[in-house]
Amino acid sequence: MAIFMFVFVVILGVCLLSSVLLRWNEMRYMRKGLPPGTMGWPVFGETTEFLKHGPNFIRNQRARFGSFFKSHILGCPTIISMDPEVNRYILMNEAKGLVPGYPQSMLDILGTHNIAAVHGSAHKNMRGAVLSLLSPAMIRDQHLPKIDDFMRSHLSNWDNKLIDIQQKTKEMALLSSLKQIAGIESGSMCKEFMPEFFKLVLGTISLPVNLPNTNYRSGVQARQSIVSMLRQLIEERRASQEIKSDMLGYYMSSEENRCKMSDEEIIDQIITILYSGYETISTTSMMAVKYLHDHPRVLEELRKEHLEIRGSKGPENPINWNDYKSMSFTRAVILETSRLATIVNGVLRKTTQEMELNGYIIPEGWRIYVYTRETNYDSHLYPDPYSFNPWRWLKKSMDAQKYLFIFGGGSRQCPGKELGMAEISTFLHYFVTRYRWKEIGGEEVVKFPRVEAPKGLHVKISAY
Fold this sequence. Notes:
- The protein has 464 residues and is of the alpha+beta class.
- Helix content is 54%, strand content 10%.
- It contains 17 helices and ten strands.
- The chain has helices spanning 2-28, 47-53, 55-65, 84-92, 104-110, 121-133, 136-154, 165-182, 188-204, 215-240, 247-252, 263-294, 296-311, 321-325, 328-341, 396-400, 417-434, and strands spanning 68-73, 76-81, 98-100, 162-164, 346-351, 355-357, 360-362, 367-371, 435-439, 458-463.
- A hairpin with a 2-residue loop joins strand 6 and strand 7 (360-362).
- Helix 8 runs antiparallel to helix 12 (263-294) and helix 9 (188-204) crosses helix 10.
- It starts with a helix and ends with a strand.
- Heme binds at residue 414.
- Keywords: Heme, Iron, Membrane, Metal-binding, Monooxygenase, Oxidoreductase, Transmembrane, Transmembrane helix.
C-alpha cells in the first residue's frame, strides 16, 4: 500500500510539474508583438504533433491563429508562415536580418560547411562554383551523356519482374549522382555507401537527441562513415595525381576551383549535393510513375512525346540536349508531380536580430518556416488544384508566376533544378518507351514529413 501511495504521489507530482512548466513555457513567449499561436511542452514543444500530423496540425493552427503564427518545432521557437506574399518577401530578402535556419540535426549530419547552411560571401562563392558545374553547357556536354548511359543500364532488365519502384528510384538517384559527382559507378564502395547514405537521410529530420536507436544517432554515425569513405577517395586521387572530369575533380583542381575549399568543405558540399539531388529526384520519379499509372491519358501523351524522339534515332543512340529540350510535356509532368505531391514542404530561415515582419516583432534567433505547401493547392493559382493536370504547365505564364516555390526562391533557388529535370526526364524516357506497368498491392503513400510509401510501391513490369 505504501509503495502504491508513493508511486501515486510521484505521478501526481510529475503531472503538476509538467502543467506548471507548460504554463511557464506559454508565458515565456507571451511577449508584446509576437504572432498568436501555442508553444507546446517545454523542450519538445509541438514537435511530436508536427511530425505525426504534419499538414493537419498546421491547418488546424491556421484555422485558430491565421496564416502567420508561432510554434515550437524541431527544438526551436518557430514562426510558421503560410502567406504567399510574406513567403515571397522572405525568400527574396535573405540578407535583411535572415539567414538559413535549418534544424540542428540537419546541420550536424550534412555538415556546417554545406551550401545550404552558409550565408553572405561564403554562400555566394559556393553557389557560383556549383552553378558553373551545373550550367546548361556542362549538362549538355558532361552530365547528360553520363545520365543517359546510366539510365540505359539501370532500366535494362526490368521486364517481367515485380519491383518496388520506390526502392529502384532511390537507388537510381543515388547511384547516378555518385557517377556524376565522384565517378563512382559500382563495386564495394557503392555497396558500403548506399545503406549509410539512407540512414543519413533519415537522420536529417529528427530531434537532435543523441540516444541509442534514434534516427539522429544513426544519421550522425552514417555521416562519419561517409566522411571516411570520401576522405579516402580524395587521398587516393591526390596520390595518383589524376584529375577526373567530375564534380569532385573540379573541386580538387586548384586551377578550376576558385573557392579553393578545404577537404572538409569539399566533403560537406559533396554530401549536400548528393542529399539534395537524391531526395527530390527519387521521390519525384516515384510519384511520376504513380500518377502516370493513375492517369492513362497523361501517360499516353507522355509516351507519344518520347516515342517520337525514339523514332528519330537508332535503338542504341542516346538522347541528346536537343532531345531533352524538346520534352515540353515531360517537363509539365515533372512540374505537376512536384506541385501535387509537394516534394518540398517549405524552407527554414533564422533571424539574426530582432525584426518586424508582417506587423509582428520576431525575436533574434527564432526560426521562420516558410511553409509553401498550401500555395501548391491554391485554387486561384491552380484551378481544380487537387487534380493531376500537366497541361496547365504548357501555358508559359505558369512556369514564371511569382508564387512558384517548388524550387525555392531568391538567391537560394535550387542550383540543380535543370540537372534534376534532365535526370528525371531521361528516366521517364527509357521507362515509358520500354515498359508498361501495373500496381500490385495498392500501398499507401504518405506526404509528410517526406513523401514516401512506408511499405514500398510495388509494380509488375512488362515490355512495351
